[in-house]
């Protein structure tokens, strides 16, 4: 399914993004059933989440998941959980049982990913994605083998964007989601958006940088 671009002024992105997510959530819970919302990290979604926290949504029916997480503790400045906690969970007073956190603090990264797979619903209802200047989304980087994964629903990866070690939903999960919002802001991403909308293959994401990150991650692991 091809994405439908919605172009707004940068200052209007938070409002437009919050309106879109709130609308999907309200429609999804119409019959009183629970709805799943999966959140990305990075710098773009924070203002959207803060605006979303002001919207009139039956939040008691929303279960919060994560698109990806860096392998850092949940109180680390680079944690995607911390971003969502400060912008959304705390303002809304979301109870812990509605939050399905990727456990980035765990030493056994592979087991943490497999455990998260068990928490995921068969299909996610609403997913918020970002996009890097290299075209990555979630922690799925152009040229990375994780993009070829067809079976696993959650993988650990080493990415070229630090922090290196991450846990990420895979394409099958993102592609089976009912509603997906891609939040993209900044002139530096314009060409990547154009290439993506044109269906072009994106160039591999700075593999040498990724190699450096892998070497460092391996060295960290050996400590
Ligand atoms: O954990 C992450 O880094 C995000 O999930 C990632 O996929 C993000 O959406 C892009 O890197 C864009 O990040 P910015 O919004 O900071 O440009």
Automatic annotation (TrEMBL):
It comes from the Bacteria. Keywords: Hydrolase. CDD domains: 6PGL. It catalyses: 6-phospho-D-glucono-1,5-lactone + H2O = 6-phospho-D-gluconate + H(+). Residues 9-209 form the Glucosamine/galactosamine-6-phosphate isomerase domain. Its EC number is 3.1.1.31. Hydrolysis of 6-phosphogluconolactone to 6-phosphogluconate. Belongs to the glucosamine/galactosamine-6-phosphate isomerase family. 6-phosphogluconolactonase subfamily. This is 6-phosphogluconolactonase. The gene is pgl.
């Amino acid at each position: 399914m091809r994405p439908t671009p919605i172009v707004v002024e940068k200052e209007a992105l938070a409002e437009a993004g919050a309106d879109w997510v709130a609308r999907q959530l309200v429609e999804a819970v119409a019959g009183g059933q629970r709805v799943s919302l999966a959140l990305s990290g990075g710098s773009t979604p924070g203002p959207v989440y803060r605006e979303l926290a002001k919207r009139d949504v039956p939040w008691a029916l929303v279960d919060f998941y994560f698109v990806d997480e860096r392998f850092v503790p949940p109180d680390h400045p680079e944690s995607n959980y911390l971003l969502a906690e400060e912008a959304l969970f705390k303002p809304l007073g979301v109870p812990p049982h509605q939050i399905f956190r990727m456990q980035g603090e765990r030493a056994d990264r592979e087991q943490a990913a497999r455990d998260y797979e068990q928490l995921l619903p068969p299909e996610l209802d609403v997913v918020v994605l970002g996009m890097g200047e290299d075209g990555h989304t979630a922690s799925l980087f152009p040229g990375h083998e994780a993009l070829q994964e067809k079976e696993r629903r959650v993988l650990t990866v080493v990415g070229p964007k630090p922090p290196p070690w991450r846990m990420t939903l895979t394409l099958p999960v993102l592609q089976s989601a009912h509603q997906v919002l891609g939040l993209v802001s900044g002139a530096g991403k314009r060409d990547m958006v154009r290439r993506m909308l044109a269906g072009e293959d994106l160039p591999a994401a700075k593999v040498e940088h990724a190699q450096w990150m892998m070497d460092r991650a391996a060295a960290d692991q050996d400590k």
